C-alpha cells in the first residue's frame, strides 16, 4: 500500500488512479468531520467536492514536509468557511421527551454524545481542534497547520476545551467569564 505522499507523487506524474485513491482514503473522514462543522449535509458535501477539486488543481503546491491529511483538512476548512452558514443550534424540542420511544432513545443518545455537547459549548475553532486531535489523531503541529494557528494556541485551546467539556459533562455550571475563556 502506497503512502499518501507516494500517491501525490504518482498523481503529479500523471497516474490518475493515484488521486482517486487519495479521494477514497479521505472522502468519508472529511465528510464526518465537515458534518460536525456545517449547517447541513449538503453544505458538507459541497465543501468536500470543492476540497478535492482544489486539492487536484493545486497538488503541485503540496509540501511533502507535512502530512497530506493536514493539507487536505486545511483546504476543507477553508472551503467550508467560504460558505455562509448559521450557527449550530439544536431544535428546541429535540431534547424534550415525546410519546415516541424511538425519538426518546435518539434524544437520550444525543444528550450523552460527547461530540454533540462539544459542538454546543465550544467555538468552531476549538471544536475543530478537538476533533482533529481526538477523532483524526493529528498532532498539535498538524492541527496548528490545518487551522492556521500557532502551536501554543492549539495546546491552550485543547486544554481549555477538555476542561470545559469535562466541567459540562460533570454538570458543573461555569461563570460566564470563565465559560468565554474556553473559546
Describe, in plain words, how this protein is organized in 3D.
The protein has 183 residues and is mostly helical. It folds into two domains: 4-82, Rna Polymerase Sigma Factor, Chain: A (Orthogonal Bundle), CATH 1.10.1740; 101-180, Arc Repressor Mutant, subunit A. It has helices spanning 4-12, 16-37, 41-57, 68-82, 101-112, 114-121, 124-134, 140-147, 151-169, 176-180. Helix 1 (4-12) crosses helix 2 (16-37) and helix 7 (124-134) packs across helix 9 (151-169). The radius of gyration is 18 Å and the shape is globular. Residues 85-96 have low confidence and may be disordered.
Number of extended strands? 0
Low-confidence stretches: 85-96
Distance between the termini: 40 Å
Tally of separate helices: 10
Question: Briefly, what is this?
Answer:
This protein is mainly alpha-helical.
What's the SSE blueprint?
Blueprint: H1 4-12, H2 16-37, H3 41-57, H4 68-82, H5 101-112, H6 114-121, H7 124-134, H8 140-147, H9 151-169, H10 176-180
Helix pairs in contact: 1-2, 2-3, 2-4, 3-4, 4-8, 6-9, 7-8, 7-9, 8-9
Features:
2 domains, single chain, Arc Repressor Mutant, subunit A, 10 helices, Rna Polymerase Sigma Factor, Chain: A, globular, mainly alpha, 183 residues
